[in-house]
Amino acid sequence: MGKAAFKPGTLGENNRSNNTLFLISVILLWGLGLFTLLISTTDTAERIFKTESKYYFVIRQVVYSIIGFVLFFVATVIPLKFIRKLLGLGVVIVLILCILPVIGLGRGESHGAARWLSIPHLGKFQPSEFVKPAIVLFLANLIDKSMERGDFNSGDSWLYPAIGLVSFSAVIILQKDLSTAVLILTVGIIILFVTGARLTWVIPMVILGLFAIGIFVVMEPYRLNRMIAFLKPGEYTLSLDYQRTQSNFVISSGGFWGTGLGTGMSSLNIPEIQTDYIFSGWTNAMGLVGVIAYFLLLGFFAWRGYVISSVCRNRFASYVAFGCTTMILLQSIMNIGVVSGLFPTTGIPLPFFSSGGTSLITTFVMCGLVINACNCDEEENVYSARKKLGGLKTFDGALNADE
Fold first, then answer.
1. Which of 237, 292, 344, 395 is the residue whose CA sits 20 to 30 A from 164?
2. Pair 345, 233: CB distance under 8 Å
3. Exposed, middle or buried by CB within 10 Å (0-12, 13-18, 19+), for 368?
4. How far apart are CA 30 and CA 32, in angstroms?
């Protein structure tokens, strides 16, 4: 069967001015997200924390943004060759961090899900967020090495990417975070497809993935209930489908021009609006005009990210830029699909908008990696001849680009 064949460097020489345009899109998305928290969550903060500031979520987002910008800068300047050398260790650490809440070590639960690790005096963080850049780097590394050896699409070259995808997805599902697992699995399959993996491999992976998702939905009553509520709209508006019903009402109330700033309507009607349903606050205040403006900005962000991926002559860096851009874009689409009622209710945040430190910081890191790819030199793409001759015999070897 046919296959896709994305080739880095097809748009010509690497143009570093792409950095500026991509950075502008990142800053605009972040600023819009912070502004949305400001206009949508003040009532919620006062209701939850009583004596705390009504700007609690905004202030916390600013603090995490500072950390995010620092790590964004680090991700733009750290040599990708250095990242590849430490990639094996990094992947193992991320996997261990994801396993810890499952087995109860350092676990901080929320809404019955074991997705968080709690650090004394520092608060909670969600280790599954680290999987997003980790899986992109992991796949880009394996695919680049396989192409250098000339055995991509032959033998068992697909085995290590499949093992990585299944391992990460499985441990996240154990945290009762099916939506993130679906996101990671989908992005992984997209990366394999666009880099030229055979459809005879990709299609079975898609079918098996859909089958596995169906099983996991049926296994958990709350997931099954959400699916039932999604398939029968209007029957569970005050119970199973309350959050989505309220979100649709708030969105439709915005009309074409929006209700304006400071109405507080959205934060009064939607539980946890500061997280997964923050976009409904924006649409209520800004209306259809605001929705169009957001999608134009998101499209600009994706366009500049994919341009960087296309002009980059370093294959590994190109795949990293493509994967990080796709991860943020697809997550945004999934969140908005849930908020608008197109998809069943899931707990996936909107990049740059949803209140949450780990998600925001991880998004900044992935954006930093995209800019890093734009600055990456072509000669870094050279893979050692001894690797070509010796091949990779172990899973540990597959994780490390240099020995």
1. 344
2. no
3. buried
4. 5
In angstroms, rounded to a whole number, what is the distance separating the alpha carbons of residues 283 and 292? 10
What residues are paired with 113 via a beta bridge? 110
Distance CA 52, CA 238 (A): 30
Give the model's pLDDT for residue 243.
Answer: 75
Residue 142: closest CA among 316, 321, 373, 381: 316
* Cα of 231 vs its chain's centroid, Å: 26
Kind and range of the H or E run holding 124? strand 123-125
Indicate the pTM of the whole model.
0.87
Q: Which of the 8 DSSP states describes residue 393?
A: -
The CA distance from 396 to 185, in Å, is 21
Note the pLDDT of residue 100: 85
**Alpha-helix runs per DSSP H in 220-255:** 221-231, 242-253
Q: What are phi and psi of 113, to 5 degrees?
A: -105, 135
- Give the phi and the psi of residue 110 in degrees, each rounded to 5: -150, 125
The series of mean pLDDT values per 10 residues for the chain, 403 residues long, is 56 65 96 91 75 82 95 94 92 90 66 67 80 95 85 70 87 86 93 84 84 83 79 70 76 79 56 83 89 96 94 91 97 92 84 91 96 73 40 38 38
Nearest Cα to 83, choosing from 401, 367, 403?
401
* Cα dihedral sign, 58-59-61-66: positive
- Residues 259 and 253: their CA atoms lie apart, in Å, by 7
